[in-house]
């Protein structure tokens, strides 16, 4: 043993970290080997077990295989390890019974890697010297060895060196993502094989590094949230307990009072934006956002994602749901992520889950970068197949044609995208409301709430100021949009009563979008294709493009239409195809069903009578149109049947003359009743009851006192109904005027605050409520008042204005 060489390898705190060239130099110096073939042999000694492991791993890297620790023996005297066996990573076989049971099947089984290789190195510790010596060595492998240019991909050789870590930290702080960092490392080291690890290792290191950094700074965030809650108890925040690391916290969620209030008005669709969760960003920040009545992004709460497992996302979604009073959205949009999808299915089982198309297109540029470079037309073809197809059949035909054209049928990622097509391709999602202006818009960007404020280099200490600045800016834009809506009437492009109605109901942004559809009807023709009683089917297409026709089914009695484009279901705005059918059927105004309150200027109104109608004049026009269309529909069927022969035509003419006399007589009786009652004209009763009442009035005297009493009660009931209708109309007018004044005052207050923001320093803010009396009803407006008396005195002046 005295003549045997003793090799010692340094081991750092993070694990074995051996530079191949340094290891070879060390072994050359200690073994005096001239040919450099460093091969284990029985009796070779090491100073420690770690040195033996490092030596075998370095040998494996040079030969072309990966290693792992297989077994060990412990001393019966003190329990210390006295023998180790290091083996080829392909040693043994996978135990299939451990991976599968009768009740559960693995969804994505891993590739079989163990093939029963016998190659190994056994080392044993000598009791006398404490050194370790090779006691057994098997050289032969039963599988192909990896060539030198691929050995860096083997697991035991994928190690990030100290200098590489320093470079990664520097580039990450500058806002670079894993892909760009790996490109820099490859250039720095002169090839991927010299880097010593893969992009996956770089991503994992960056994520772990970021989590350690966040845990160190998370106390700053918690202090900020506690202060916000102390200033305003309505400020909501919650922190997840990290059961795996008791000294650290898990995910964090918070929502200010405005976010909670806005959700009550616009919480029908929600986006969970995980753009900042990627390794390119230093902050794992994820806001919950929506869309207000101006089409602007609004905030429903924020989260810091420290843990990215399914349980943590379930906690986050449940916490957000509790903060929003347990009301689940109709639809939710997230990144294309299997973990997030599983959490959404648990917490929002009734909501329609959509993957963000913008994120998927971004991933396409990464996963298919070689295709984008080789074929400049690929991006346009992909956009057409996804965004410009009108039916499921069209999409699938275009999709497979795209795969064949660019030879991508076997691309695994595209196959996975196709499997998930029902959750991101618009043609499968148009039957659900997502509050988007168009279902076919191109995904060039996502309308993120914090765009322009938070970027890749933002750290936690900078975050708070930028977060508050983003909130202030978004509020200013909302106030500006409210002001423009109330004080600058849009220019009408047609004489249509429907356009005038929409201009008085919608916000400016939404009216502009509706106006585009209304004007677009001028180039479309609607022809009746089928008539099934009250349900008519129309083909709507541009002149000369009948092959691109959309199918609209219109129920004339219910005043509801459904279009094959499903734009109204998707965006809440009536499409030009339905409007074209309304035009040919002489429907003068939009029925209430097609006016979503969330898109109107009174979206935040608390008026409880909105279900009865938004405007008395609109109700009158609508009821008049319903009566007109109902009569015309019945008359068309009558005329079509009566015109089949001369005899039926003569009978029909006689019947029409009798009907005209009856209607004329009833109109005279109605005028007399209106003048006798002295009230405004209300809605008439149904046709059958009205004619019966007319016949009763022509009788000289009821034979029975009971009949006379019934007639009196019927007249009193009609009078009461008319009075109620008049009172309701007046009340709606008063409430609408109140809401308009309330909104005007709110805009004035916000404008005063904005104008003072730059001129007066903000010393302290606190929530207060200013009450004002409008039409004998008190309306409460939350405002923030500065402690300075000069600023306090300005707000009452603004209210008086």
Residue windows where pLDDT falls under 50 for at least 5 positions:
1-36, 99-103, 440-445, 608-618, 678-702, 761-801
Residue-averaged pLDDT: 77
Helix fraction bin? 40-55%
Q: How many strand segments?
A: 19
Structural class: alpha+beta
> How would you sum up the global shape?
elongated
Radius of gyration: 38 Å
Organism: Brassica rapa subsp. trilocularis
Pfam families: FAR1, MULE, SWIM
InterPro entries: FAR1_DNA_bnd_dom, FHY3/FAR1, MULE_transposase_dom, Znf_PMZ, Znf_SWIM
Function: Putative transcription activator involved in regulating light control of development.
Keywords:
elongated, 6-stranded mixed beta sheet, 7-stranded mixed beta sheet, zinc-finger, disordered C terminus, 19 strands, disordered N terminus, alpha+beta, 25 helices, metal-binding
Explain this structure.
There is one protein chain. Helix 5 packs across helix 7. This protein has 25 helices and 19 strands. A hairpin with a 7-residue loop joins strand 7 and strand 8. The protein has 801 residues and is an alpha+beta fold. Helix content is 47%, strand content 15%. The longest helix has 53 residues, at 705-757. The protein is elongated, with a radius of gyration of 38 Å. It has a seven-stranded mixed sheet, sandwiched between helices. It starts with 5 loop residues before the first strand and ends with a helix. It comes from Brassica rapa subsp. trilocularis.
């Amino acid at each position: 043993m005295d003549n045997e060489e003793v090799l010692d390898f340094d081991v750092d705190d993070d694990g074995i970290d051996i530079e191949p060239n340094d290891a070879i130099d060390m072994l050359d110096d200690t073994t005096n080997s001239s040919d450099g073939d460093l091969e284990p042999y029985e009796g070779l000694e090491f100073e420690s077990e770690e040195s033996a492991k490092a030596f075998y791993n370095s040998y494996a890297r040079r030969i072309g295989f990966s290693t792992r620790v297989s077994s060990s023996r412990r001393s019966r005297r003190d329990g210390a390890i006295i023998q180790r066996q290091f083996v080829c990573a392909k040693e043994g076989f996978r135990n299939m019974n451990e991976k599968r049971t009768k009740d559960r099947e693995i969804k994505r089984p891993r590739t079989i890697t163990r093939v029963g290789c016998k190659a190994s190195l056994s080392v044993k510790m000598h009791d006398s010297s404490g050194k370790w010596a090779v006691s057994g060595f098997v050289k032969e492998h039963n599988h192909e060895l990896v060539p030198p240019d691929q050995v860096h991909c083997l697991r035991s050789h994928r190690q990030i060196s100290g200098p590489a870590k320093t470079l990664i930290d520097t580039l990450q702080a500058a806002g670079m993502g894993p892909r760009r960092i790996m490109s820099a490392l490859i250039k720095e080291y002169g090839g991927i094989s010299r880097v010593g690890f893969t992009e996956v290792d770089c991503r994992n290191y960056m994520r772990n590094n970021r989590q350690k950094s966040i845990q160190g700074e998370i106390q700053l965030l918690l202090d900020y949230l506690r202060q916000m809650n102390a200033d305003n108890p309505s400020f909501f925040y919650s922190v997840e307990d990290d059961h795996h690391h008791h000294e650290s916290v898990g995910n964090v969620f918070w929502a200010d009072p405005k976010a909670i209030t806005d959700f009550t008005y616009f919480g029908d669709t929600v986006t969970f934006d995980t753009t900042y969760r990627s390794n390119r960003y230093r902050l794992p920040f994820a806001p919950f956002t929506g869309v207000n009545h101006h089409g602007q992004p609004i905030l429903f709460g924020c989260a810091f994602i420290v843990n990215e497992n399914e349980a943590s996302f379930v906690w986050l979604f449940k916490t957000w749901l509790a903060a929003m009073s347990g009301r689940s959205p109709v639809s939710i949009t997230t990144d294309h992520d299997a973990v997030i999808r599983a959490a959404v299915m648990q917490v929002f089982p009734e909501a329609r889950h959509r993957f963000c198309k913008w994120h998927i297109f971004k991933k396409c540029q990464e996963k298919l970068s070689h295709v984008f470079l080789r074929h400049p037309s690929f991006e346009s073809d992909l956009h057409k197949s996804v965004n410009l197809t009108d039916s499921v059949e069209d999409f699938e035909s275009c999709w497979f044609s795209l795969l064949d054209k660019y030879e991508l049928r076997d691309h695994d990622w595209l196959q996975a995208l196709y499997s998930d097509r029902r959750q991101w391709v618009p043609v499968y999602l148009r039957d659900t409301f997502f509050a988007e202006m168009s279902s076919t818009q191109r995904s060039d960007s996502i309308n993120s709430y914090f765009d322009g404020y938070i970027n890749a280099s933002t750290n936690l200490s900078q975050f708070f100021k930028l977060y508050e600045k983003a909130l202030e800016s978004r509020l200013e834009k909302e106030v500006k949009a409210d002001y423009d809506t109330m004080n600058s009437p849009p220019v009408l492009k047609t004489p249509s009563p429907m356009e005038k109605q929409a201009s008085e109901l919608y916000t400016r942004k939404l009216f502009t979008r509706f106006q585009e559809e209304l004007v677009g009807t001028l180039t479309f023709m609607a022809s009746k294709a089928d008539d099934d009683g009250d349900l008519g089917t129309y083909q709507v297409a541009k002149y000369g493009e009948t092959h691109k026709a959309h199918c609209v089914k219109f129920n004339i009695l219910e005043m509801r239409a459904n279009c094959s484009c499903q734009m109204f279901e998707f965006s809440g705005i009536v499409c030009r195809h339905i409007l074209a059918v309304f035009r040919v059927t002489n429907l003068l105004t939009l029925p209430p069903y097609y006016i979503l309150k969330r898109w109107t200027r009174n979206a935040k109104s608390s008026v409880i009578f909105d279900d009865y109608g938004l405007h008395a004049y609109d109700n009158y026009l609508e009821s008049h149109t319903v009566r007109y269309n109902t009569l015309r529909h019945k008359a068309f069927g009558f005329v079509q049947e009566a015109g089949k022969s001369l005899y039926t035509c003569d009978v029909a003419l006689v019947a029409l003359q009798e009907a005209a006399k009856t209607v004329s007589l009833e109109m005279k009786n109605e005028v007399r009743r209106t003048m006798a009652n002295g009230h405004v004209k209300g809605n008439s009763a149904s046709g059958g009851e009205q004619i019966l009442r007319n016949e009763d009035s022509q009788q000289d005297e009821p034979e029975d006192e009971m009949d006379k009493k019934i007639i009196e009660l019927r007249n009193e009931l009609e009078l009461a109904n008319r009075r109620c209708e008049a009172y309701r109309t007046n009340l709606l007018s008063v409430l609408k005027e109140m809401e308009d004044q309330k909104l005007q005052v709110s805009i004035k207050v916000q404008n005063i605050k904005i104008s003072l923001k730059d001129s007066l320093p903000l010393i302290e803010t606190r929530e207060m409520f200013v009450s004002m009396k409008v039409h004998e009803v008190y309306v409460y407006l939350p405002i923030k008042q500065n402690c300075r008396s000069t600023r306090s005195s300005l707000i009452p002046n603004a209210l008086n204005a």
